[in-house]
Amino acid sequence: MINDETDLQHMSRACELAVLGQGMVEPNPMVGCLITEGGRIISEGYHAGFGLQHAEIMALENVPDTERDRLKHASLYVTLEPCCHQGKTPPCTEAILESGIGRVVIAIQDPFSEVLGKGIETLRHAGIKVDVGVSQDRVRRQLAPYLKLTERGLPWIIAKWAMTLDGKIATHTQDSQWISGQQSRKIVHDLRGRVDGILIGINTALADDPLLTARPTGPRTATRIVLDSAARLRLDCQLVRSVDQAPTLIVVGPLANAAAIEKLEDAGLEVFRATGTSPEIRLQSLLEELGRRRFTNVLVEGGGTVLGSFFDSNSIDEVHAFIAPSMVGGAESPTAIAGDGIPRISEALQLTNTNWQTVGNDFYVNGFVARGD
Predict the structure, then answer these.
(1) Of the chain's two ends, which shows fewer C-beta atoms within 10 Å, N or C?
(2) Residue 1: its pLDDT value, please?
């Protein structure tokens, strides 16, 4: 029976396995898999890295020799529909059929055009019992960045900020280091180490002179992205001096000075000329370009103007906010999200699947932006 307690427990374990590949498999999806016989877990697997064997193959290879004759009575649980096409690895459906597995339980269908139900159809056509939909809501949340990139061609946008108890991300003199504590900053570095891009605005680049790298390094080296419509980035800043440590993308507007652009390119930075007559259109053109580059996760670190642009365009998917037990006051002190904002409290963006915790002296909240669609 689909969604019985045993199925839910086994798929929950498959979700736990999937997370082991986070930051290493993108733009591929995180996938977890396990094989059971008589209610016992006899083998486990997960997708460990881009181009490496898929979760189903690892699980099948890990089946003990003493259990192989019983696979016709076994069930294979996997968080995403098995692939049925030749990519960087052979089709998983072939390996499943060759194994003699009697039942396959799948959380969600893969929206990738080369799969999109064909893997399920292949298994069923061969006489395997296939159940789809176990723990589908949990898996859709887990795979949300992959699903957005695959279905819409856009990266998952993670907004991050640190603010005081009175909602400020800097003082009226623009001093902002450090609002959050060391333990909070460690979480940020962990985030940086698993995303494809880290984005800030030119004002933050000029005021803070950040390095925007993960320390210590994580499984991914993120491209550092600066929204710099007029190509004002200083050539002596840390981003330029450290260009050999991480790729750096400067996003300029159509009116940016050609000589300034040339100097940035000569310094080893890549310049992307965003198209459009307004900042909103240029932001969308950047997101589409990042999608074409198969960026799965992009961390937006601000400041308030940049976060406001993402907020106003309804582009934020996930939030990580750190709230320090301090206050700085000041009508001119910047807040985390500027821009136009929303006119009525009833229209405020809400977070779902929220987690609150104390990190050192800070409060840390993270969650997904609730969507009505």
Answers:
(1) C
(2) 43
